[in-house]
User: Fold this.
Amino acid sequence: MSIDATVAPCKCDCACGEQATEAELMVRLEEVIEEYREKEGGLIPALQIAQTIFGYLPDPVVNRIAAGFNKTVSEVAGVISFYSFFTRNPRGKYLVRVCLGTACYVRGGKEVLEAIKKRLEIDVGETTEDRQFSLEVGRCFGACGMAPVVMVNDDTYQRVKPARINELIAQFITEEEPAAEGENK
Amino acid sequence: MINVTINNQSVHVPEETTILQAARKINIRIPTLCHMENREPIGACRVCVVEVEGARTLLAACSTPVSEGMVIHTHSTQARMARRNVVELLLSEHDGNCQTCDRGTDCELRALAEEMGITDLPYEGVKITPHIDDSTPGLVRDNAKCIKCRRCVTVCNEIQGVGALFPQGRGFDTVIGPAFTRDLAEVACVQCGQCAAVCPVGAITEKNNIQDVWAAIENPDIHVVVQTAPAIRAALGEEFGYEPGTRVTGQMTAALRRLGFDSVFDTNFSADLTIMEEGTELLTRLKKALVDKEDVALPMFTSCSPGWINFAEFYFPQFLPNISTCKSPQQMFGAVAKSYYAQKIEVDPKNMIVVAVMPCTAKKYEAARPEMNANGVQDVDYVLTTRELAKMIKEAGLDFRSLPDEEMDAPLGLSSGAADIFANTGGVMEAALRTAYEIVTAKELPVENLHVTPVAGLEGIKEASLIITDTIHDWNFLEGVELKVAVAHGLGNTRRLLEYIKANGCPYHFVEIMTCPGGCIGGGGQPRFTDDSVRLKRIAGIYAEDESKPLRKSHENPDIQKLYKEFLGVPLGEKSHHLLHTHYAPKQQTCPGE
Ligand code: SF4
Ligand code: SF4
Ligand code: FES
Assistant:
């Protein structure tokens, strides 16, 4: 078993800034399973926390959660594949999510998605080779008035135009952190 | 009791009855797809909707309980149109190709379309992208044919307790299959084929070996031997319009001969052989435990059912030492045919093909196991299901119903009634007790008509016990011992029994396990559709076959005695060990990490 943990920083109290080892991550997973296994509807939160720990949900994690919850792997896989917020691939540093809810869709969300795919050279659900960007679609980010909407990590970009995609992506590629963040870009 | 009116007829039913059950009581048919006998309704397909006066919407008959005074219209225009709409939608996504579908004319979706008078489709739907999963030796899945009724999910999870299948993804893109839409060979599927048995369409079927068998038959240099499992003879007739349970042994034999098989033999023969080996193995284990005080694995589990072997290898490796080392009757037959019989007729085993007709898809997997090659070639080359044999008979233009009754060939065609009952749950146990008791006491098993009734029937886990008295000299150590046995069928029941044994220790000496509900008569390769009423009829047919035989006990079979005298020596002897016994190994349960 090997889990790629490069996207999961250590969350221990020592503030050492070091990456957590695989074994440490697995210990945390056991704690999560222990906490949620008896809870009604505990599977989804456990999967969500596992995903924040590992950055994604690889087989060993899924197998362990299935065993911990006394469920079959196929059932847990069914839950994971039902919700778009779960990912089976390691995520990049920046998670780009394009809304394809009705409002965004009719106002060009699809074209925005195509432009991003082209720019990043990846498909939905994939991560760029340099592990910088992952691409996903969402259903509604609650900003329909400003459609089409794109989110990069926790920041929202509104009224995005396909022609401006290169610019949007470019700010994350520079060495320094982008100057302007988020809103009303 | 509750009074309801269905289509202007009143009917009194107990509380908790569903609309569907109430309608059936007065012979009104409401179509269903996702609904399964003895299971909680899941209400997924909506093919069963009916109109209930006063209700705001149409209600699913399978999951709606009746209430006092309910007025139900099952075939009002509204209900009919809604159901029709459901089926039209299914058809619009379904990658039909009925003309070339393995399912042929017993497809339930096709029947529903006909029943509803659907002659053209109003929608041109987007078809599901096909993915053919032929990764396993036993089964083929074609998800473009799947209508997402989830019966296979129910059977694999709830009845078999395996859980290899589950809905993956959502909406139109949902795939009913293994985790993360993997292929079956990548997950812990035991190949039982119960999913194929319940699928209403052609989305899960056995892997077809008909062309391989035709090619062997048509090759003049090859001697083709066929063996038929006990469960075939009480079910094959259904493919030709007979009632379930009709015994067609003689006609089946005639058909096999006319298909061109060179030798027509019986897996029953090697079922008798299995009893000799397995019965001796049980007595030997008991002797080691009781007299020699050796540490020997008890209880002993039967080993005839390859789905069960897979299940133990995946999920209960700690019990592998408890499983009898006897190969299954199918494999014993192949090993004996390619040695004893091949020598007799002076054929090189390399030029002999053994075809097995089985009620089972896991038997295809078993035949392909690499260790099953006692004579340097695979013991069994091809396995056909009951359904595949029926297809070959039809393809050859044989009028099955008018075929005469014929006898199987010698020397591997003669069998006792004990072999017949291998076909149903409790049968292997009964057959073993008939012989073992007589070995130990020199007396006949003291039960009426030789039937061990506590282990017969469709209850999931059954037990019986028998105090052994009047033992003959060699077996005196068993004097007064209470022999305890248990029988489980269906892997969900098996799992419960094993968990019980794990937690509480084992009160039993001998345990029979059959993978499929009802035993082999309910196997994944049997004519569709199998429900409990069909199971019971097939079981009755099998017991009738047993009772009709002059020989009822395996050790009395003169051709078995001859086989030992001329060739094998004694049960568990060196030759037996080499040809008739095998070993098991744990299998990885989950897909290993990347
Ligand atoms: S063959 Fe048996 S174990 Fe495998 S998927 Fe079908 S029902 Fe499940
Ligand atoms: S494979 Fe067959 S039984 Fe399973 S969901 Fe699809 S149609 Fe139903
Ligand atoms: S049979 Fe009633 S909803 Fe499927």
